[in-house]
Structure formats: C-alpha cells, structure tokens
Amino acid sequence: xxxxxxxxxxxxxxxxxxxxxxxxxxxxxxxxxxxxxxxxxxxxxxxxxxxxxxxxxxxxxxxxxxxxxxxxxxxxxxxxxxxxxxxxxxxxxx
Length: 94
Description:
Strand content: under 5%
Number of strands: 0
Oligomer: single chain
Distance between the termini: 49 Å
Number of helices: 3
C-alpha cells in the first residue's frame, strides 16, 4: 500500500495525527489526538457515503478511510500503553 508508512515515517504520522497547531489540550495532548481521530473517522464516514451515492472519488474515500484507520490504531496503541502502565503501577508493593 502506498499510503502506509514504515516505522521510519512514524514521527511524521504522529505529527499529522496530533496537529500541534490545534487548540491547546489538557491531559498531555491526549484529547487533541482523540478529537483529531474522531474528526478523521467522521470525514471517512462522510466520504464513504458520498462514494456510495456517486458524489466522491474512490481514491479520496479510500485514502481518507486508511488515514482514519491508522489514526485509530495509533489511539488504541496509546490506550493500551496507558492501561499497561496503570496495571504496573497498581501491582507495585507499597
């Protein structure tokens, strides 16, 4: 797939997902990533519906859907890491 980047392209992908020029976020930027991913998913849904009715290009709809999928995967990886960190902290002896 041409739209999928390797590990070397990860910093650029993170920069695209986080979009630092957006409004300042609390919680260390997590809410910015969450909002960005939500917006990408909505845009992908909208383009899918437009493609189904013949008002959008297949390439644009597919690229947007893939971008939303990668962003969602990134968000889930952050969530997984946060849960693992929480579980490690909770299992520490006091």
